[in-house]
What we know:
By secondary structure, this protein is an alpha+beta fold. Helices cover 20% and strands 46% of the residues. Strand 10 and strand 11 (180-193) form a beta hairpin.
Amino acid sequence: MKAIVFAILSFCFISANAQDFTSADQVIDKYLEVTKIKANAASITDLVMNYTSESPRGVAETEIKYQFPLKYNMSIFSNGMELMSTVYDGEKLARKSSFGNNAPQEPKTGNAAKAEAQKSNPFFELDYKNQGFSANLLSKDGDFYVVEFKDYEGKTWKDYYNSKTGFKDKSWVKMESPRGSFETTVIIENYKAFKGSEILFPGVKKQTTQMGEISNELQSIKVNKGLKAKDFEIK
Length: 235
């Protein structure tokens, strides 16, 4: 009798775990649960993430500062020199680059700036609806749930969530440029906790670009260091 009960319970357990999700909300909620973002993000007021980046151009260091609900400052350095930066002060988004034409670009404002900034948010899935984004569950691709996100300008991208682990393992986007359209894929690996937070952050991101593969390895995070408004000033 005990063997029969055990078999029935085992079958129910397996069936429940094998059940496919039928909505983007279910997939996203699972991701927020397994990464522990849902349980811990609310206690984080600011965050500093430091990466080592390798590309066909060489090795660089990337530092990204976040202040929530969302301001951010990303700087890429090589040999002590800043190569590129992107700053969002909560209203405007500005870029600088030491490559090619060094003339300063006009900052983005309004929805264009807000949409780009929110896409960089490490906790994007937690609040995407309130920020004006939508999500739609597409047909499953092998072991991946494919969620198509759309911003308020109608631009879309696809994120691939592993049906076995719940983690987001890949992101794909098709972008338009003056030189034509191109596709970019980011492979996301090695989720782990860093000192200062229980959240599991992706330890490695590998991005395919027109210039080749860029590999970013997360070296450290700093939580609630008291970042100030001046850390996000557009100069």
